[in-house]
From TrEMBL:
Pfam assignment, any one: WD40
Example GO biological process: actin filament depolymerization
Name of the protein this chain belongs to: WD40 repeat-like protein
GO cellular component, one term: cortical actin cytoskeleton
PANTHER family: WD REPEAT-CONTAINING PROTEIN 1, WD-REPEATCONTAINING PROTEIN WDR1
Length: 619
């Protein structure tokens, strides 16, 4: 057996309210780069569903910039490290790791030769440093700031110049190389969020919390003017980012007032305004980052939505969404169309319409999702587009046709721990965190069983309606739904499958209901015959931490599992010793795995990403 990563559905850029976010593009205007978690994500501008990730950092990443040559990316993190790594090749070898600052890196700039790097941010002794990309040798000192530096820019032709801007309200102009203090620019009256050189390097521009835009001479640092100072429709919120058009004639600014504005530099006038989010007052539509690369103009919402803009359109022409936070639950709805629903701990639910094992991108599920962590999700195996979501706000919600059915939401006595649906989607069984079990049918929840004799931890429902409960004491018990559809009737005594010594965490029936796989806290999986409890195998034991999820292949001959150890393992029922181990599939944990078809496994995890794996099973 072997595997190949087929698709990578990237997480959205990480954002923090009140902080600008840096997006960058390559010199050709084909790809853009951003940070999320400990990863750096590289995506196609033309086809943002095509992406890949770099995971060389041990701390949360904050910014990444491609070199002018296109061969390297420099990325920074919250620990103050900057890693320089190779874009070419699958291994993305590190060219160097440097520690220019003692705290968060906020921005990075390259010189024209792709030799020198300017990194700015927070620190104990300094707020920036200029160094050689390979050796790390110092080639300049950043000084003149009393608070964290937010952004930086380097002139790409001689004479060499650089600019930094800071929360202290100043911009500092440097001569190089080596780079040294030349002047402090104090036109802004609040935090200065961004600074960018024009493509011809004749000017640079700064923006900030005072909602003003200043234009400076690129060689001398002298103030030219405030851009459109008398504009009748200025930004009404902090300006977090600015970008130049490739020809240097226009600027685009992104603001906390939920708009992006285009400015004619020579004409000193506002040209157009794009309103994001339909003009609503929701903070999620605040614009916190942008870029202008070739024909593509992109602005980033606080929600992580990537908005594609055009000067002649009053609203974004395309919006790309995804998860910013770890995915905690997922379920595959049979459809049509087949749809993978994923949910994260911030309550965001995304739908990925699948065709041929791939997706054209995510769509946000409409309706009241609760804005709180989704603990578990389950889909109706018999077809249709019905998914149950169990959330920490003590509610069970139902997604139908790509939207949350608000009228079907059922309040529970406690938060669901594990959720399962019958094949027709009409009945849900949920294990709650108060150690009770409820059956939800027709918009009502009823206690499923009394005197269970243990603390239930997981539930699964077979295609024929059989129900399995896994308990804290390592036992599994079978039940049937009573004729009233609201209670569970024991189908036999509790079983203690050989091989389990820790509490059961997840259960999964094979598609025909004949086999039951149970996973535990210690990383062990045991497969038994559902009807008799006879052990089929106890040799699925290569995980090193809690089992979160198990998904069966369509023929029931194989199963995939996901664990807190970050790995996905594909198992064989007939030959348990033969397995496929995908290590590091999702660092910090795999929340869900499922078979899309006989040769494709989907996984989702704490990195906020969804991945598709092509699996070649042993014959």
């Amino acid at each position: 057996m072997s595997f190949v990563q087929k698709e990578y559905f990237a997480p959205a850029p990480a954002t923090t309210r009140g902080q600008p976010v840096r997006l960058s593009a390559d010199a050709k205007g084909e790809h853009f780069v951003y940070a999320n978690g400990r990863a750096v994500v590289v995506r196609s501008l033309a086809s943002p569903d095509k992406a890949w990730e770099y995971r060389g950092h041990t701390a949360a990443t904050t910014v990444a910039r491609m070199s002018p040559s296109g061969y390297y990316i420099a990325s920074g993190d919250v620990s103050g490290k900057v890693r320089v790594w190779d874009v070419v090749g699958e291994e993305h070898l590190a060219k160097g790791e440097h520690q220019p600052l003692g705290a968060r890196i906020n921005d990075i700039a390259w010189d024209a030769d792709s030799q020198r790097i300017l990194a700015v941010g927070d620190g104990k002794e300094q707020f920036g440093h200029v160094f050689m990309y390979d050796s790390g040798n110092s080639v300049g000192t950043v000084m003149g700031h009393s608070k964290a530096a937010n952004a930086c820019a380097m002139r790409q032709r001689r004479p060499l110049r650089a600019v930094t801007c800071s929360d202290d309200g100043t911009c500092v102009f440097y001569h190089g190389a080596p780079y040294k203090f030349a002047a402090a620019l104090r036109e802004h009256t609040g935090f200065v969020h961004d600074v960018r050189y024009a493509p011809d390097d004749e000017h640079f521009v700064t923006v900030g919390a005072d909602r003003r835009i200043f234009l400076y001479d690129g060689k001398t640092g002298a103030l030219v003017r405030q851009v459109a100072a008398g504009c009748s429709d200025p930004h009404r919120g902090s300006i977090f980012a600015v970008a130049w058009s490739p020809d240097g004639k226009y600027l685009v600014t992104s603001s906390g007032d939920r708009t992006c504005k285009f400015w004619d530099v020579a004409g000193d006038a506002l040209v157009a305004t794009v309103v994001v989010g339909g003009g609503g007052a929701e903070p999620e539509h605040q614009q916190v980052g942008n870029l202008w690369a070739g024909d593509y103009i992109v602005s980033l919402s606080l929600s992580g939505a990537v908005n594609y803009l055009r000067m002649d359109s009053a609203a974004p022409v395309r919006v790309v969404v995804g998860h910013q936070k770890p995915i905690t639950a997922a379920a595959l709805a049979a459809g049509p169309p087949r749809t993978l629903y994923t949910a994260s701990y911030d309550g965001r639910v995304c739908a990925w319409a699948l065709g041929g094992g791939s997706s054209s991108g995510a769509a946000l599920v409409a309706g009241p999702t609760g804005d709180t962590r989704v603990e578990d999700a389950a889909a109706a195996a018999g077809g249709g587009d019905v998914v149950a979501l169990g959330s920490l706000d003590d509610a069970l919600r139902f997604v139908r046709g790509g939207a949350v059915d608000g009228g079907a939401t059922v309040g529970l006595a406690a938060a669901p721990r594990s959720v399962a649906l019958t094949a027709d989607g009409a009945t849900a069984v949920a294990v709650l965190q108060d150690d009770s079990v409820v059956v939800v049918r027709g918009g009502r929840a009823a206690a499923a069983a009394a005197g269970l004799g243990g603390a239930p931890r997981a539930v699964a429902v077979a295609a024929d309606g059989a129900v399995a409960l896994g308990f804290q004491d390592c036992t599994v018990q079978m039940f049937t739904l009573a004729a009233d559809g609201a209670t569970l009737a024991p189908a036999g005594p509790a079983r203690a499958p050989e091989g389990h010594s820790r509490e059961i965490t997840t259960l999964a029936f094979s598609p025909d209901g004949a086999l039951l796989a149970s996973g535990d806290v210690g990383g062990k999986i045991v497969v038994t015959r559902a009807a008799s409890g006879e052990v089929v195998t106890t040799r699925w034991g290569s995980h090193t931490a809690r089992i979160f999820t198990i998904g069966w292949s369509p023929d029931g001959a194989h199963a995939a599992s996901g664990s807190l150890d970050g790995s996905v393992i594909v198992w064989s029922v007939a030959t348990p010793q033969r397995k496929i181990v995908i290590r590091g599939a999702h660092p910090d944990g795999v929340a869900h795995v499922c078979y899309i078809d006989a040769e494709t496994v989907a996984s989702a995890g704490a990195d906020g990403a969804v991945k598709m794996w092509t699996i070649r099973h042993h014959v």
